[in-house]
Write a structure and sequence with these properties.
Chain A has 292 residues and is of the alpha/beta class. Chain A is built from 10 helices and 10 strands. In chain A, helix 3 packs parallel to helix 4 and helix 9 packs across helix 10. The chains are: A alpha/beta (292), B alpha+beta (90).
Chain lengths: 292, 90
């Protein structure tokens, strides 16, 4: 696992796509940042190639770059700072989509290799407010698509790591770890990337059912995340990836998990013959709910 | 792309899943007499966390694009079920 992957695991918890905005006109730059924020996209705003190079050295993966090709602030360079930023991003192996625009350069003043750096360009020589609005919308669209893809890859990766972790640290070992101290602890942070992604291994007690039925304690993965403006708590039964629940907070997630587990018991009871996976589920649920 | 409550309902409907009457929290897709997929969710919010989307996608063995197609139209429910059965080796 590389440092970049670890960094991005942590970054995914902030729950917002990330854009690089390069524009030397302060008013347009601020408007762009504000408008992208309205679309739920966080921005790193720079006014020159030098500022962009500095910012990019300490930034996790970008989702999109919206670059003014003509950056007048780069006095010591030629006036195509946006192209240099695009080259820098491609050189770093960034897969972020790059949108270039300019009120100064027209398409024909850029070479084919310069145009190739961009996924989309708006270089017709003059830009109206409507053009900017369209660019912001396109930028937000690209950012969300990229973020969604990135998030999905990250979740896939975390799922694989949890399965590996469960093989290396079986439930009995987790319980032993939790009971090592004289005062038993109820949770601990998973090592490495899973810990950085916010995963804790925890013993929980499900809330009683509608008729007050109680259950045995249960070992779960718990992750607190923030997506957009919402906070979530994700729960997954340790060793049973098919049993999971979410909620706005831990007690809501637990309540949801308890309900879904009881619905699974009811569903299993309807099956005449069980497959191997369902047999294993039934064993766990019988232990959990006993004589319910 | 946000996985919304509406998208979840579309997926359940397309797959002809049976849902619990009292609490819409679990949809059951019967692939074979001894093979059922259970899709959990919570209907308390307009948007669902990416965790749920990921779980549904991995349960149904669908790629991101295929899963999006499932709730945005192009992929029909029967086609998705055929794909799922193939990928599960059923």
């Amino acid at each position: 696992m590389t440092a970049t992957t670890l960094y991005s695991s942590k970054n995914m918890q902030s729950g917002r796509p990330l854009a690089l905005v390069a524009e030397d006109n302060v008013t347009i730059r601020e408007n762009t940042v504000r408008n992208l924020a309205r679309h739920g996209v966080a921005s790193i705003a720079v006014g020159s190639f030098t500022q962009a190079a500095g910012a990019l050295s300490d930034v996790p993966r970008l989702d999109v770059a919206l670059l003014d090709i003509h950056l007048a602030l780069d006095k010591d360079r030629d006036d195509r700072g946006g192209i240099d930023i695009a080259r820098l991003l491609r050189g770093k192996g960034s897969t972020a989509r790059i949108i270039g625009y300019s009120a100064k350069f027209k398409d024909r003043t850029l070479t084919p290799s310069e145009l190739k750096l961009f996924d989309s360009t708006e270089t017709k020589g003059s830009l109206t407010h409507t053009d900017h609005v369209r660019l912001w919308k396109l930028c937000a669209e690209y950012a969300k698509e990229s973020y969604s893809r990135r998030r999905s890859e990250e979740l896939e990766h975390q799922e694989q790591l949890r399965r590996l972790y469960e093989i290396e640290v079986p439930a009995e070992e987790v319980l032993r770890r939790l009971q090592l101290d004289h005062q038993p602890i109820k949770q601990y942070m998973a090592e490495g990337a899973l810990g950085l992604a916010g995963y804790r291994v925890k013993v929980v007690k499900l809330p009683p059912g509608e008729s007050g039925e109680k259950s045995q304690p249960l070992l779960v993965w718990r992750q607190k995340v923030r997506e957009g403006t919402k906070s979530w708590v994700n729960l997954e039964v340790y060793g049973y990836p098919a049993l999971y629940a979410t909620g706005a907070n831990e007690s809501a997630a637990l309540k949801s998990l308890a309900r879904s587990l009881r619905l699974t018991v009811a569903d299993l009871a309807q099956m005449k013959k069980l497959g191997a996976a369902d047999e294993s589920l039934k064993l766990l649920l019988t232990y959990l709910f006993g004589g319910e | 792309m946000m996985f919304s409550k509406k998208a979840a309902e579309t997926v359940l409907k397309k797959l002809d899943a049976t849902t619990s009457d009292c609490d819409d929290i679990m949809g059951v897709v019967a692939l074979a007499p001894t093979y059922r997929l259970r899709l959990y969710w919570d209907n308390g919010h307009e948007a669902l966390p990416s965790f749920v989307e990921h779980k549904w996608r991995s349960t149904l063995r669908l790629k991101v694009e295929e899963f999006i197609d499932l709730y945005e139209c192009p992929l029909s429910g029967p086609d998705a079920l055929t794909l799922t059965r193939e990928r599960l080796g059923l």
